[in-house]
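Same chain as my last thread, 338 residues:
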Amino acid sequence: MIKDGGIAPQAGEAFLIVGFGGIGDHVRCFALARHVAARHPGIAIDFLCRSPTHRIVPFVPDLRAAFVDDTPHGRLGVREKLRLAARLRAQRYRRVYVVSRTFKSAIVPFLAGIPERVGWFGEGRVALINRPQFGDRRLHGETEKVCALAAPEGLAGCGPLLPPRMVAPAAELARWQSEVLAGGPTAPVLAIAPGAYNDRRLWPAERFAEVARTFAARGWEIWVLGGPQEQAMVEVIAATAPIRDFTRTPLEDAVFQLASATLFLGNDSGMLHIAGALGVPSIGLFGPTALEVTGPRNPCVAGLRPPPGQIDLREISAAAVICALDGLKGHLDVAQPA
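reply #2:
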């Protein structure tokens, strides 16, 4: 059966998805992989991304493998793109989904000679994208825009929205817990990720510390996740509560950290998207952005905003966050994304 107006996939063929942006944007693309897999059962789907996102692709059931394009921002990187295109050409992909609207993002799939190149119309890509789609600017949510590429009819042809899905295999999770924790957690765990893409998305570290102190007093373990750039915030939180600092571990370890957590609290960030994809009950803090636009669409994620008319995250009190987290404790049986 031929789907999507293209050539029917043959045995051994594969599709490619070209991701974009930061970690959260890449995780959003995992939702597109779910829709493509649902429309084309059995087709292999690979992912082209920036590092370090390739480290978490093994936890995405709908993806087979990852390729990395780390061309520096602001550079076309012709030589690097030619080398990458040669590697992709050897995979004999039938179709590619180019998620970003930029000209640069469509160059490698064109050079790789992929016959069907699906993407949004824009930025003079007429020759590079030969199966253009229209209407992305009418879609409100970023995840909806990504998933709409899965069908020629756009989002209307995709059926119910399938959020990103990630899975930490039980054996690998048990091995990580044994090596790092000397077994599983001995108390409920509140995982906190205080970082974000830019300063406007940051809730004050002192407020995270207040939440950490409250939950630690209740007997919870406090884990702080992120990267080395969050060290100053880690120090603020550690001054008020005993913590386990995971901000110097590789990204793939964050999957095991989150999968081991009871609850998650973070800003609108890549960690929040990973937590959502893993099915971890989560509170995301939104001010200049909105859950329904840039946030995860996983049902286990709830958003908390400043009072009406405000976008400054400093207007969200620690008491409000503690109340929201307490509200999640009645939903701790949230399963992995279906």
